[in-house]
Predict the structure.
Amino acid sequence: MQLIDTHCHLDAAEFGGHQAELLQAAQAAGVKRIVVPTVTRANFAAVHALCERYPDCFPAYGIHPMFVDDAIPDDLEILHDFLRERNPVAIGEIGLDFFIEHYDQARQEHFFAEQLKLAREFDLPVLLHTRRAQDTILKHLRQIKVRGGVSHAFSGSRQQADEFIRLGFKLGFGGAMTYPRATRLRELATTLPLSCIVLETDAPDMPPEFVERGQPNQPEYLLRIAQTLANLRGISLEELAQATTENALAVLNRLPPVN
């Protein structure tokens, strides 16, 4: 079994320095590659160090929309340096979030557009945060062409999904899909072409239905998330794993092949 977690904040404080044990458990569950995105300039170096230490982890650098209020223009220069010098597999986590209270839409859109320009400059895919902002994000993606990427934790409409796919994106599904009450999300996960789906945990966030309330999500849970999706689609776990791994390697083309 070979799985790729396309979105896991393995550097998070919730893990309390237990990354080695978490990775051992993930590897035992068949998780062969983990993409670790940043959220702010402050954790660029920590994510780089983590991925240097653990060979199955691969960095993505970016400024998350929930952190742009504290960002300064120099952060984009530092991001540029990390993209040039530290061999990332993507830019991320970037995007727009119109769900949080008192958000500054203009500031979010500025930092998003500037990071899309960096993705274009370095020919890197992007990891998108798209909470209640799919149409505005799609507008920017039409204006600033990038090589594609992953729409992380996808929760939009089928029409929006089709447009992301047309623009070269895969759609990320994770813990939210495991809840029986998530009927619209489950329908999307079941009816979208398998060729456009990738798996993710977003650990320690977005814990699946089977995790005890209040406990963090973990990368090893990707296997049970994959089994849920295989059950929904009526296919074997092996077929689901092979397809989603191939999809991840195709869109995150700087990830090394899974042996």
